[in-house]
Write a structure and sequence with these properties.
Elements lengths: L1 H15 L3 H10 L1 E10 L8 E2 L3 E2 H4 L2 E6 L4 E6 L7 E13 L4 E8 L2 H7 L3 E8 L3 E10 L2 E11 L1
Antiparallel strand pairs: 1-4, 1-10, 2-3, 4-5, 5-6, 6-7, 7-8, 8-9, 9-10
Length: about 160
């Protein structure tokens, strides 16, 4: 009886923990990244305000730092023609489908300026992650059709 009880307690702790795949992803994402390019699924010129913060042109070349042990980070917009500076955020990686490798990625700004303006998080798909590259996708609707924004990062 005692062994059965210990077995069920151990199983309940393991089921509540983060999966090994998500833990490994957090190890890989740790560190400094450069957002080198942003692409759209449709051809054309679009006025997109990413993360309710800045344009595509401002985000390209931005630097990002992820600290997975407390799920925080900072991104810096570096272009002088943009509202430059550091923006703090918290993030969460949740496993969706181990077959496709897609993860649900939630990013929420925590700077007072942006928090008071948006007070929201942004749900993205972490579609690719390696020791040197990372890709996020966000799908929104434009004129009733899906429109995908792809953000490509390189590890610094």
């Amino acid at each position: 009886m005692k062994n059965t009880l210990l077995f069920f307690i151990a199983i309940s702790f393991m089921s509540c923990g983060t999966s090994k795949i998500v833990r490994n992803s957090k190890k890989v994402i740790k560190g400094d990244w450069l957002l080198h390019s942003i692409a759209y699924s449709e051809k054309g010129t679009y006025n997109v305000n990413l993360l309710n913060d800045a344009s595509k042109e401002c985000f390209e070349g931005s630097t990002w730092q992820f600290v997975p042990n407390n799920n925080t980070g900072i991104y810096n917009i570096n272009k002088s023609s943009c509202s430059s500076g550091a923006r703090n955020f918290v993030f969460t990686i949740q496993e969706i489908d181990t077959q496709t490798g897609l993860y649900d990625f939630l990013l929420k700004p925590t700077n007072e300026k942006y928090k008071s303006e948006t007070n929201q998080g942004f749900r993205l798909n972490l579609t690719a992650l390696s020791d040197v590259a990372m890709e996020w996708e966000q799908t929104v609707r434009v004129d009733g059709k899906p429109f995908t924004i792809t953000m490509n990062f390189n590890k610094q």
